[in-house]
Amino acid sequence: MRRVITSDILSASMERRVQRQRAEEADHLIRFVYNQCNTSDNSAVNVRHVAQHFCGNMIRRLVFGKRHFSVAAGAAGNGSGPGPEEVAHVDALFTLVNHIYSLSVSDYIPAAWTWMIAGLDLDGQKKVAKSVMKTINRLHDPIIQERIHEWDGLRKCGDKREARDFLDVLVSLQDSQGRRFLSFDEIQAQTAEIMYATVDNPSNAVEWALAEMMNQPEVMHKAMDELNTVVGKDRLVQESDIPHLNYLKACIREAFRLHPYHAFNPAHVAMEDAVVSGYFIPKGSHVLLSRVGLGRNSDVWDAPLQFRPERHLMMNEHVVLTELDLRFISFSAGRRGCPGVSLGSSVTMMLFARLLQGFTWTKPPGAFVHSSSRNPLQVSH
Ligand code: HEM
């Protein structure tokens, strides 16, 4: 399945094919924030809401070819923001992500006891996960079913059409006998995985980068100078500008290093006995890589708690968001590393660069942005 995701869905050719959809979403973002500024009483914009829904809109567009579940929400216009179904969707995706990352007591009960406690759901996580999966499936299933029906019809007539979105890719795959390769359950699971894999990291990194820049106006000035030099004031920043926006990429790297979405990576299991840095790791161990431990390690990073994008410029001539040496975790590395590096980088950078270029951000009077805050960042345009 990982091969399908890497070579069919997240391939360079598919990424090019959905370029227009990504560009349109970046334009809708500007309209949405502009409308928020004009409608909200104190011009305050909830950056977390904006960033999370940009990612939600983007990934629904790329997977399903549409950003809204209901016709009514779509008819309200592209700058109008999410309708109730889109809000329920993004809430469910984030709840699911948080449960994937969190520790569950039952995972650490000795195997011999599990038959006794099976079904007890000691910490209640199973119940929450089931409930949000119900929401996600309620919203996804009709779209998947309709698409399967369409492609089965095409196959029957010996017809084909080009895959227009990620769901098309999943549904159109066929075996050597020309039958649909993936079952409904497999397509359902992959669709959900791609959705929740896309929403958390880009939105969190951009929110934190902006928050840190509120505290350090000189960093904001440098980023704006770079945008003015590379892009200018006569056009909006595009994906093709990203390779030249090294300072902005350094800001996002710094946000990944200092403020990862979650303290740990998803658990891996050791397939064999192994020795890492002198530590013996027996086969079957759950291995939890600490993102905070790596990113804030004072043996590696000078003044690790300070937000200093410059440190990434000193290390690289061409800044990228990946960190293959794992001095901090962005996309991780190796066989289980993230297959969505290219898409994830462009989604994150477009969100960040458009918010910076399109608006002047200040803290509301009296507000203090604390770098350990879990409250959504509220800033004025
Ligand atoms: C800034 C954006 C992103 C970041 C920082 C990021 C980061 C990560 C990280 C840290 C992992 C876990 C790696 C590990 O367990 O060692 C991961 C896994 C994964 N990511 Fe991403 N990701 C991003 C965007 C995306 C996007 C856009 C997609 C797909 C559309 C994606 C798909 C996946 C998948 C399928 C996995 C599971 C891989 C596996 O278990 O084999 N990610 N990502």
Task: Please explain how this structure is put together.
The chain is mainly alpha-helical. The protein has one domain (2-380): Cytochrome P450 (Cytochrome p450, Orthogonal Bundle), CATH 1.10.630. Helix content is 55%, strand content 4%. The chain contains 15 helices and six strands. The strands form three sheets. Strands 1-6 form a two-stranded antiparallel sheet. The radius of gyration is 22 Å and the shape is globular. The two termini are 43 Å apart. The mean pLDDT is 90. The protein binds protoporphyrin IX containing FE. The site of protoporphyrin IX containing FE (HEM) has 23 residues, from helix 1, helix 10 and helix 15. Protoporphyrin IX containing FE is lined by residues 2, 5, 10, 193-194, 197-198, 201-202, 265-266, 329-332, 336-340, 343-344, 348.
Alpha plus pi helix count: 15
**Widest beta sheet: strand line-up:** 1-6
User: How many domain modules?
Assistant: 1
CATH class: Mainly Alpha
Report low-confidence residues grouped into runs of 5 or more: none
Distance between the termini: 43 Å
Bound molecules: protoporphyrin IX containing FE
Cofactor: heme
GO molecular function: heme binding; iron ion binding; monooxygenase activity; oxidoreductase activity, acting on paired donors, with incorporation or reduction of molecular oxygen
Binding site for heme: 338
Family: Belongs to the cytochrome P450 family.
Structure, briefly:
It is built from 15 helices and six strands. It is mainly alpha-helical and 381 residues long. It has one domain (2-380): Cytochrome p450.
